[in-house]
Structure formats: C-alpha cells, structure tokens
Design goal:
Elements lengths: L6 E7 L3 H12 L5 E3 L19 E2 L9 E2 H14 L3 E3 L3 E5 L5 E5 L9 E8 L3 E3 L5 H6 L4 E2 L2 H4 L7 E5 L3 H10 L5 E5 L9 H9 L3 E4 L2 E7 L6 E6 L5 E4 L3 E4 L3 E3 L30 E3 L11 H22 L3
Parallel strand pairs: 1-2, 1-8, 2-5, 8-19, 10-17, 11-12, 11-17, 12-13
Antiparallel strand pairs: 3-4, 6-7, 7-8, 9-18, 14-15, 15-16
Helix pairs in contact: 1-2, 1-7, 5-6
The structure holds NADP nicotinamide-adenine-dinucleotide phosphate.
C-alpha cells in the first residue's frame, strides 16, 4: 500500500452533517473523498449521526415546512454522492497519525497493513448524549423522548415535561423548555444540584420549574409515544408514576474520540482541540469538525458549517503539501 496512486487525498470518518458537508465540498473540489460512514450497531449508533434519532427538524435553514432527520441526512448523502464521494459502510477500528500518509484500518485492527492511506484526514465522528440505559429509550427517542431542547422544545407546547439531570445542561434545558411547557419537572438523583450557582438560582426562581429530588427514572412508558414516567425515590424506595408526555435527558455528552486517544489533543472531557479560527488539530493534515470538537453549540447547522470549513482547510493543506 505504499504506491502513491493508492493514497487518498481525503478520508472522512463519520457521516453526520459535519462529515457529509465536508464530503460535498471535497468532492466538488475533485478530491474524491472516501467517507467511512460507520455501520449500524444499535438504535443510537448508526451512520448519519444524531439526526437519525430525530423525527421532525424545523430549524435547519432551507426547509420552511421542516424535514425529518433521516430524510435530511439522506439528502446530504445523495448530494455528496452526486459529486463523486465514495462511501464505505464500516467502522474505523484503528488509525495511525504519527507520520504521513496517515494509516487507517477498518475490520481487524491487528492486521499488519492498513486498509487505507490518506494525505489528509477529516474527523467528524460526532458525540452522543449519555442515556439512562433503560430499554424504553431506544423505542421512544424522537417520540416524546429527546436529548435536545433547542431542537425539540417547540413540539411540546403545553405539555408536562420532565428533564433528567442536575448539571448546567439540565438547568439550561429546563429553563428553555418553560417557554413551551405547562410545567417542567427536574428529576435529579441527589438532593442538591451540580449546576453552577447562577443556573440554580435561575431555575429556582422560575415558577414553571419544580424538582423531584433523590429520584431516578425507572421507566418511560407509552406504546408509540411517551405517556408517563416512573420514578423511584432512592431514599425511601417508593415508586411513583407521573403523567409527563415529554422527557429530556440531560446527563451529559460523550464525544466519539476513543480512536484518537493519545494521538490528537483533546479537552479533559475528550473533545478534540482545534486551533482558533480553524479546524486544524495538533497533527498537521488532520482536521476535526462537528460535535466531536464542539461542546457548545451542538446543532446540525453549526456542524455542517464546520464541515465546510474542514473541507476548505484540507483542500488548502493539499494544495500546499501534496506533491504533483
Ligand atoms: P454534568 O455537569 O456532568 O452534569 C451531569 C448531571 O447528570 C449531574 O447532575 C449528574 O448527577 C447527572 N447524571 C449523570 N449520570 C446520570 C445517570 N446515569 N442518572 C441520573 N443522573 C445522572 O454535565 P452537563 O450538565 O452536560 O455539563 C457539562 C459541562 O458543560 C459542565 O462543565 C457544565 O458546567 C458545562 N455547561 C455549561 C452551561 C452554561 O454555563 N450555560 C450549559 C451547559 C453545560 P450528579 O450531580 O449526581 O453527578
């Protein structure tokens, strides 16, 4: 595999809005990108990223009537294919970024030869919301169960909603949801919040928000959409069922960066660090875009924007560095 004709200009790992936008841009720049898009392994882990878990998307510009998450991602993919992006439905199992060209394995990570060589690599492996681990979550996500108030709050006008978690994210979600909900109940497993003082004070001051302390969710109930939530008090053991028709899980996010541990610089929380005003990582020729490097905005449109930036950064890098 050392023949330079077999070295890809660009390999993109991940196929959410960031990776597919990078694919559209690099394909249109004639860089013949290979997108290693992942493969389905569970309801919450499949090509297309987190939008595959969403029903209606109403805030992606260009779709005044809204569009479903899976349909939007299928459009992104078709657009990239139209310009010649190649797709591999597989998971990357190992990368070696210590020297050029970069070495990328799919399948057996112990194989002596990598599956692909690449001059630039765009990492867009995304992040996932940490879930509670209940069986019902896979079934009801997108049907009353959500991990993003900004995305889905609008669909819960006058609902009784609960938010699970006690950190800043949970307070932020709860406060945002008061714009729509009849009532927002924060369910927290302890009797004090982890959130910053200022966020706590805002939540306590809002009369649409109340709290179920020392409580864990043991069941999210409903056949086709959420109808109620069962909660256990961890101090008394008492189980109660509440008529919440919207559930927002806000117990943290986990970036999908295990593959790059020890090779790309990351924050303490595992997000890839990129240079200010750029998608460049600490490894020359490796770029990161989308939620894998963004724990602030986490929106499809911001991910797509950073995917475009990564494609342009990779293109410029190739112009400056690729021989011939
Ligand atoms: P976090 O601070 O780690 O809080 C996670 C919360 O979820 C904690 O209250 C935790 O409970 C709870 N939790 C974790 N696993 C759970 C489980 N299995 N079941 C039930 N509850 C569970 O995460 P975050 O709120 O997403 O915030 C992440 C970082 O971003 C923080 O540094 C935060 O300050 C920052 N952030 C800031 C803002 C802002 O300033 N506006 C907004 C969002 C996020 P325990 O408390 O018992 O551990």
């Amino acid at each position: 595999m050392s023949d330079s004709s077999q070295i890809r200009h660009v390999v993109i790992i991940g196929s959410g809005p960031a990776g597919l936008t990078a694919a559209i841009y690099t394909a249109r720049a004639n860089l013949e990108p290979l997108v290693i898009e992942g493969e389905p392994s569970s309801t919450s882990d499949q090509p297309g990223g987190q939008l595959m878990l969403t029903t209606e998307v109403e805030n992606f510009p260009g779709f005044p009537e809204g569009i479903t998450g899976p349909e939007l991602m299928s459009n992104f993919r078709a657009q990239a294919e139209r310009f010649g992006a190649e797709f591999l439905t597989s998971k990357v199992t190992r990368v070696e970024l210590g020297a050029h060209p970069f070495r990328i394995w799919v399948g057996n990570p112990d194989s002596p030869e990598p599956s692909y060589l690449a001059n630039t690599l765009i990492v867009s492996t995304g992040a996932q919301s940490v879930m509670l681990g209940l069986e019902d979550e896979g079934r009801l996500i997108g049907h009353g169960l959500s991990t993003c108030a900004t995305c889905d709050g609008f669909f819960f006008r006058e609902h009784q909603i609960c938010v699970v978690g006690g950190g800043d994210s949970a307070m932020e979600e709860a406060l945002f949801l008061t714009r729509f909900a009849a009532k927002v109940t924060v369910i927290h497993r302890r009797d004090e919040l982890r959130a910053s003082k200022i966020m706590q004070e805002r939540a306590f001051a809002n009369d649409k928000i109340d709290f179920l302390w020392d409580s864990v969710v043991t069941g999210i109930n409903g056949d086709t959409s959420v109808e109620s939530v069962t909660v256990r008090n961890v101090k008394t053991g008492e189980e109660t069922t509440h008529p919440f028709t919207g559930v927002f899980i806000a117990i943290g996010h986990r970036p999908n960066t295990e593959l790059f541990q020890g090779q790309l610089e990351m924050t303490d929380a595992g997000y890839i660090l990129t240079a200010a005003g750029s998608t460049a990582t600490n490894v020359d020729g490796v770029f990161a875009c989308g939620d894998v490097q963004d724990d602030t905005y986490r929106q499809a449109v911001t991910a797509a924007g950073s995917g475009c930036a990564a494609a342009i950064d990779a293109e410029r890098w190739l112009e400056a560095n690729e021989a011939g």
